[in-house]
Design a protein that fits this description.
single chain, alpha+beta, three-stranded antiparallel beta sheet, 17% strand, elongated, signal, UCP034077, TonB-like protein
């Protein structure tokens, strides 16, 4: 259990301790632009390092587009191992580093500052929905 409780700490230390390059993209002017911008920075761990899983992080930004406070993992696929979780938490924090500061327009900076964003990083292949058959 102690090993599992260290996972968020490792991810936060990685986020705070490693400087990353800022992704140079167009200005972020809408909520959809925030998610699009983050998708350009997402690089899931290779399958040899971790099985695919879905993970959600809640993060807030200040007016200048830097991360405000500490990102918080709120969901991980239930079947993930401790190693899978760790590898994906690291990948999420690296994606956030690559994408920050978020290049907000002035209007979006005011609207987004301090607001939490729940960002889903989906990496599992889901089966197509089954057709319901009625008698």
């Amino acid at each position: 259990m102690a090993r599992c409780s260290r996972l968020p700490l490792v991810a936060v230390v990685l986020l705070l301790g490693v400087s990353g390059a800022v992704a140079e993209e167009a200005k972020v002017n809408t909520i959809q632009d925030v998610f699009r911008h983050l998708r350009t920075c997402w690089k899931p761990p290779p399958p040899a390092k971790a099985r695919p899983l879905d993970i959600t992080v809640v993060v807030s930004f200040n007016r200048s587009g830097d991360i405000l406070g500490h990102p918080r993992i709120t969901y991980e696929s239930a079947e993930a191992s401790d190693n899978d979780r760790l590898q994906y938490r690291i990948a999420v924090m690296e994606a956030l580093q690559r994408c920050t500061p978020m290049p907000f327009t002035d209007a979006m900076a005011g609207a987004a500052a301090g607001r939490p964003f729940a960002i889903q990083f989906r990496n599992r292949k889901t089966s197509p929905p089954t057709q319901e058959r009625r008698a």
